[in-house]
Amino acid sequence: MSNLFDLTGKVAIVTGASSGIGVQIAKAFARQGANVAILARRYDKLTKVAKEIEALGREALPVKCDVTIEKQVITAVNTILNTFGKIDILMNNAGVDSVGSIDLIEEAEWNRVIDTNLKGVFLMSKHVVKHMKKRNYGKIINTTSVCGVIGGKYEPLHAYNASKGAVISLTKGMAASLARYGITVNGIGPSLFETEMTSPELFEESSLKIYNEICPAGRPGNAGELDGAVIYFASDASSYTTGQTLFIDGGFTSI
Fold this sequence. Notes:
By secondary structure, the protein is α/β, with parallel strands linked by helices. The protein has helices spanning 20-31, 43-54, 70-84, 107-135, 158-178, 205-214, 227-234; strands spanning 11-15, 35-40, 60-64, 89-92, 138-143, 183-190, 245-248. The longest helix is centred in the middle third of the chain and has 29 residues, at 107-135.
């Protein structure tokens, strides 16, 4: 049983790995034995994260990549394959948030959110799946959100809702088509975690008070509380689990 969650010898990609949840996930993979390619637009921050991963005794490859640009995605995937020789795990985590009602969102802002949160998953998966199919093995994990299945009473997140709901549907579609190739596709749906994207605005006293009153757990998520879900989906423990989105939300989606 203990070996089910072992990632020794695996190669993982984590996008959006220059801060926040991406850093936590990259380190979680490394602690379980995986070597990790970390992708983001901010290379200076990636190099710092790479050193932290290497301090855990694993190899880390920082790759500057904007996941909305296909040429950069192709170059990044080829760089990873040339370095490690394979890709076992793809963590599609890159994302941006946005506040705005459907009647007020500018088209450019809508496109920014959809391109990063949805098109980025498409492009990364497109070029990694080609490799995974050849090996008849792969683990793809998509970061979605509770906002993909619920709305927001206190502030409108319409572009973000649309993008994350689409990722949940894409996860199901990919899972159904790729299972025959030994590839599982699952998602994690966090609620509120403190990251560069959510802080300080969502962690201001007034905002946090509202969240804590709504959330059954009465608090936001803590660093490390996503690790169990991503390790499960990345490991052989989930060999017969695909098309699922697991909400790590303190019960937020149960109300």
